[in-house]
Design goal:
The chain folds into 2 domains: about 80 residues, Glycoprotein, Type 4 Pilin (2-Layer Sandwich); about 80 residues, RNA polymerase II/Efflux pump adaptor protein, barrel-sandwich hybrid domain (OB fold (Dihydrolipoamide Acetyltransferase, E2P), Beta Barrel). The chain contains 1 helix and 16 strands. The N and C termini lie far apart (about 45 Å).
Length: about 180
């Protein structure tokens, strides 16, 4: 069995982050590992927000609505607000959430191409402010400043032609000081 997805979740009322690995054995039949604990899960969508979930033989009716990376989940009358991030979104959040000091080299978090520049050398930026747009897997990803400062170097050029602005994971994109 190959891992088809890896997620990192947090839920209101629960401490910490949960690592969730999901492997599809057959349509609707999954093997799920949550922080090392294994579960067999049968997951079927009943209508737009209602799901039938059987976890290791125990049945649950779940009402779930999605709002971006956040889900409102009702199980047996209990309400949970759950955030689900894939590895890339988690990495991007960690890069912009901590306080960093000094010269910061911004690297490509994934392979793709630089589609648009939002800042130039000499521009002042705030922490979390987008500097450029990287397109990967047909999705636009904002490359954000890790700190307040000035863009002192940019190592890439933007282009709508992927062959002209391709970057590999870990390539230097810019420096903020």
């Amino acid at each position: 069995m190959a891992v088809i997805r890896q997620y990192f979740t947090t839920a209101d009322g629960f401490e910490g982050e949960y690592e969730v690995k999901v492997t599809e054995k057959a349509p609707g039949d999954y093997f799920v590992v949550v922080n090392g604990e294994e579960f067999n899960v049968d997951f079927q969508q009943i209508n737009e927000t209602i799901y039938s979930v059987i976890i290791d033989g125990k049945s649950y009716a779940i009402d779930m609505s999605e709002k971006g990376d956040k889900y409102d989940v009702i199980v047996n009358g209990d309400h949970f607000s759950v955030e689900v991030l894939d590895e890339i979104k988690r990495l991007m959040r960690k890069r912009t959430s901590g306080t960093v000091e000094g010269r910061q080299v911004i690297e490509a978090p994934m392979p793709g191409y630089i589609w648009k520049m939002l800042k130039e050398v000499g521009d002042e930026v705030k922490a979390g402010e987008p500097i450029m747009i990287l397109v990967a897997m047909k999705m636009e990803n904002e490359i954000k400043s890790p700190k307040d400062g000035v863009v002192t170097e940019i190592f890439v050029k933007a282009s709508e032609n992927p062959q002209e602005s391709t970057v590999a994971m870990g390539d230097k994109l810019a420096i903020v000081e």
